[in-house]
Amino acid sequence: MVRAKTELRERARELRRAGRTYDEITAELGVSKSSVSLWVRDLPKPPTPPERLHRMREARWAPHRREQAVMRRRTKQVAADEIGRMSDRELFLVGVGLYWAEGSKSKPHRLREEVVFVNSDPGMIQVYLSWLSLLGVEKERLRFRVMIHESADVGAAERFWADLVGVEVSALDRTTLKKHNPRTTRKNVGEEYRGCLSVRVRRGADLYRRIEGWWYGIVVGADRNPERMSGSA
């Protein structure tokens, strides 16, 4: 009996030196916490293992994170409800700004009056296509091309974008693959990475000129400086 108790004591001390807590030692040896305390109280308190620190932090912050997640969802939903169904004019103005922010633009040193829009956000693509439809651009004039890193799931990305815009995969232009650079640490990985979709409007020179004019009209129309407005009159 004495020998067994001595062995338990030595085992408890080993576990304590290994960083185990009183509760963990008690559970493993099947003895009372008071006995464990008596056996190991002369040993220095071990540092808390990193994995236990992580669990403690998670337990502490998990309720806060859940609360913040609920608040984020609620705020986004309230904001979404504030938009409602857009009028044609609202969609028209949004589309002009969207294109001028993300679409290709002609430069004085490189005159290319073409309508090409590239984005990785499916929502942006959907809004842009709705805008083109509002402008009366026929779907037959649209050309779609996937642009993606060569190490990604190219086939899955092509299917995703084809489904989004409502065409067969075979109707897409040849996919543009970005070469892999082994010295670069990529962050755009995982199932959610689908590259970008390029949407080009064929015979789009006239449309491009109109977009440029519309954007200029928005810039002038948005000016709320009375002095500048009166000075230009």
Characterization of this structure:
This is Homeodomain-like domain-containing protein. It contains nine helices and four strands; from the N terminus they run αααααβαβαββαα. The mean pLDDT is 89. A four-stranded mixed beta sheet has the order 1-4-2-3. It folds into two domains: 2-40, no CATH class; 88-231, no CATH class. The chain is of the alpha+beta class.
Which whole number gives the mean pLDDT?
89
Structural class: alpha+beta
Low-confidence stretches: none
Major β-sheet, in short? 4 strands, mixed
Question: What is the H-and-E element order?
Answer: HHHHHEHEHEEHH
Strand order of the largest sheet: 1-4-2-3
Protein name: Homeodomain-like domain-containing protein
Organism: Streptomyces macrosporus
Key words describing this protein structure:
alpha+beta, 233 residues, single chain, elongated, 4-stranded mixed sheet, 55% helix, 9 helices
Break the fold down into its secondary structure elements and pairings.
Elements: H1 2-17, H2 22-29, H3 33-40, H4 50-83, H5 88-102, E1 115-119, H6 122-134, E2 142-149, H7 154-165, E3 173-178, E4 196-201, H8 205-221, H9 226-231
Parallel strand pairs: 2-3
Antiparallel strand pairs: 1-4, 2-4
Please give a quick description of this structure.
This protein has helices spanning 2-17, 22-29, 33-40, 50-83, 88-102, 122-134, 154-165, 205-221, 226-231, and strands at residues 115-119, 142-149, 173-178, 196-201.
